[in-house]
Amino acid sequence: MIELAPHLGSMLKLPMPRFSRAEMGRRRAAVETLLSAHECDHLVFCGANRVGSAVQWLTQWPVTAEAVGVLTPGRRDMLFVQYINHVPQARLVADEADVAWGGESSIAAAVGVLEKRGARRGRVATLGLLSAAQHAALAEKFGRLESLDRDYLRLRQVKSAEERDWLRIGAYFSDLGMQALRAAIRPGVSERELADAVERAYVGQGGTTGIHYIGTTSMAAPDLAVPRQFPTTRRLQEGDVIVAEITATFWDYPGQVLRSFALGEPTALYRDLHAVADAAFDAVVAVLKAGAVPAEVIEAAGVIEDAGFTIIDDLLHGYGGGYLPPILGSRSRPAGPVPEEPFRAGQTVVVQPNVVTRDHAAGVQTGEMVMITDTGVERLHAMPRGFAQL
Length: 390
Prior knowledge:
Creatine Amidinohydrolase, alpha+beta, Creatine Amidinohydrolase, Chain A, domain 1, single chain
């Protein structure tokens, strides 16, 4: 039975859940410190098409079509929103900012605010994705722009106490989705119908879909090693394996849970694949704690290569506020230079050993988001682990 702690369940009954004034003040102070370190006086922060976590982090407004904000120490934030019909709710959510329609150009409106606030050349910073045209419009007026993106990512790696609670709700919703997928598995059900069951599990409680990647194939003649990003019309048959990765969110705060299920008796290959995946997960979690370094994670996951297998998906990545560093592969499938910075208490990461055959014909998925502590990890998910036979 997957349940939510009572104090978190009460948040789901609020018409508009909010972070405390103290939490929002903490975030603003952190960004103002970055501005000072970069010798800048103003910040333009952007998001578009539901991408741009800084907008939500600084104003509580999840980005819809487009949002461009201006932050100046000692002044209220200005937030320009596209489209005009999105403005009324944005004003309710981002109640500590002055919210207006961006008109023909939100970036042009932001330039106007900066000019009124006396912004000087070389003293404006940016945060979030800007188009080439947006960057050019700002640079034409204010010269070289300082990017806070790298520093912001480091800020977002470590979560506050309130953020951890919101992530626990995201994990709960994600577990509900995986639990519903498991319950829907039977011969004749299509991948699309599995996706439908996943969303129905949490949408009614206030959750939204981040991803539900689902893949199905025959264990006797496999042709899939990772979940599909888009479900197909393929229908389940006895002897299939179902691999899934689910992220549901609570106001941009996600969980992430990955599991595999056998419809009928698992083959020897799939038993071996999942046994190695479980061993890799356990080995990685055993070394994770504040002060551990990414190289230790990759070394611990060497059980995958020792067994003659490899991975396709990333082995570990930061999560919550974006797909965050560190992003790690394995010995046989590197993910670029291995970072040297140690893990810190309060970081949330997804451990997800997607163990596959060397020819990428067959694979399993397992793992979940955990929180780094001084002595190890705290589990945020309640979905049972293991290779379930249905």
